[in-house]
Amino acid sequence: MESIINIFRTSLTVFGQQPLMWKLLATVGAIWTGNILANIGTFTWLHFLRRSSLARYKSKSSWALITGSSDGIGKAFAHELCHRGFNVVLHGRNEKKLENVRAEILNEHPAQEVRILLLDVAESAGDHARLDEAVDQLEDIDLKVLINNVGGVAKRLWIPLQDYSDDDARLFLDMNCRFQTELTRRLLPRFINGPSLIMNIGSFVSELPAPYISVFGGAKAFGKAWSRSLHFEMLAEGHDVEVLQVQVGMVSTPNEPRPESLFVPNALRMAQSSLDKVGCGRSVVFGYWPHQLHCSLLIDLPGLLRDRLLMRIVKGLKEQEERDLKS
Ligand SMILES: NC(=O)c1ccc[n+]([C@@H]2O[C@H](COP(=O)([O-])OP(=O)(O)OC[C@H]3O[C@@H](n4cnc5c(N)ncnc54)[C@H](OP(=O)(O)O)[C@@H]3O)[C@@H](O)[C@H]2O)c1
After folding, report:
1. Fewest beta carbons less than 10 Å away: which of 51, 71, 102, 133?
2. Which residues constitute the signal peptide according to the record (predicted)?
3. 250 lines ligand 1 (CB under 6 A)
4. Which letter does DSSP use for residue 263 in this model?
5. Spatial separation of the C-alpha atoms in residues 145 and 254, rounded to whole Å
6. Residue 316 — very low, low, confident or very high, per pLDDT cuts 50/70/90?
């Protein structure tokens, strides 16, 4: 102990004898290193050490509603939530697909209950009577979890603004902003009665503005700001409602069958690691650690270099999409 104190004292003396310039540089270096170490510590804690507190929202008969759960990440959330002891409401627009998912889940988890909520976002966003009617169907269940997952894009992702039709633009905004706002607003009075969770699924694109995704990126940025604001509103009002925005990078799904890799997980992996973030105390989190790494590497590049790199990446992806659509 004595020797550590001596080393510390000597370092301070040596530091005190340095010219002012060196002192300033050393201080900046120490703050910078401290910041990096703190970020690495938080990253490790968040993704590898802490345990999910999803069980807080579970009782014998708790239900979770997952929007857009006939396929992709939403379907994976439904499977995983049943696996973790919740009954689930599957939402979607295709009754046959939803019935198949229901049968699949009940086959794996016969002890759980699975319901279907049929509601086409394209037709129901803004249709107040229809939304009220849908929410009324859930009156008799103990709804504790809402996953606002429905969203995404049309056949093309990279679209110049002038190429959008009015209908395309409206659908993007309905799917990624309006529906979740209208649905959550209706369900909120039920959530504020007890511990409940609202998880909103966002995207990488709201972190890194890029060409040809002005509508989609803008819609996802709305989702992120909306979710954060609601998170703080629940705190300000003293309601025990956790509102968590989960940012997602590339995922391999049946609609986007990309090759799986460390940076491109399958939908189940994405859903599992997102649910593991419940209770982390943040308003926004990356659900899957390689997505956070990938995004941070790009964000932390010097501005000019990052923007040039992003333009090149997007150009390649847009050309690839055009080739895929032609073939
Ligand atoms: N996949 C990715 O790489 C990725 C990346 C970043 C963020 N995300 C986000 O993750 C979420 C899920 O994406 P995903 O890739 O899993 O999507 P997906 O595979 O395309 O599935 C979307 C789900 O939404 C349903 N849906 C689509 N249009 C609908 C409508 N008009 N009315 C009602 N339901 C409708 C689909 O039903 P049908 O089965 O009838 O089509 C399906 O159940 C989205 O918010 C997306 O933005 C995904």
Report:
1. 51
2. none
3. yes
4. S
5. 25
6. very high
Q: What pLDDT score does 324 carry?
A: 85
Closest to 101 in 3D by CA, of 68, 134, 59: 68
Tokens of 204: 């990488």
Q: Check pocket membership of 255 for ligand 1, CB cut-off 6 A.
A: yes
Confirm whether 15 is domain-assigned. Answer: no
CB of 171 within 6 A of ligand 1: the answer is: no
Question: Each residue of 100-131: pLDDT tens digit?
Answer: 999 999 999 999 999 999 999 998 878 899 99
C-alpha span between 46 and 40 (Å, rounded)? 10
CATH of the domain at 278: 3.40.50.720
Closest by Cα among 164, 177, 66, 193 to 126: 177
Count of beta carbons in the 10 Å neighbourhood of residue 6: 10
In this predicted model, what pLDDT tens digit does every residue of 54-68 receive, in sequence order?
999 998 899 999 999
By most ligand atoms within 8 Å of CB, the mutation choice from 246, 248, 291 for ligand 1 is 248
- Tell me, yes or no, whether 29 lies in a domain: no
Residue 265 lies in a domain: yes
The residue segments making up the domain with residue 283 are 48-297
Compute, in angstroms, the gap from residue 325 CA to the centroid of ligand 1.
19
In the reported structure, the alpha carbon of residue 167 is separated from the centroid of ligand 1 by a whole-number distance in angstroms of 18
Ligand 1 in reach of 73 Cβ (< 6 A): yes
Q: Is the CB of 70 under 6 A from ligand 1?
A: yes
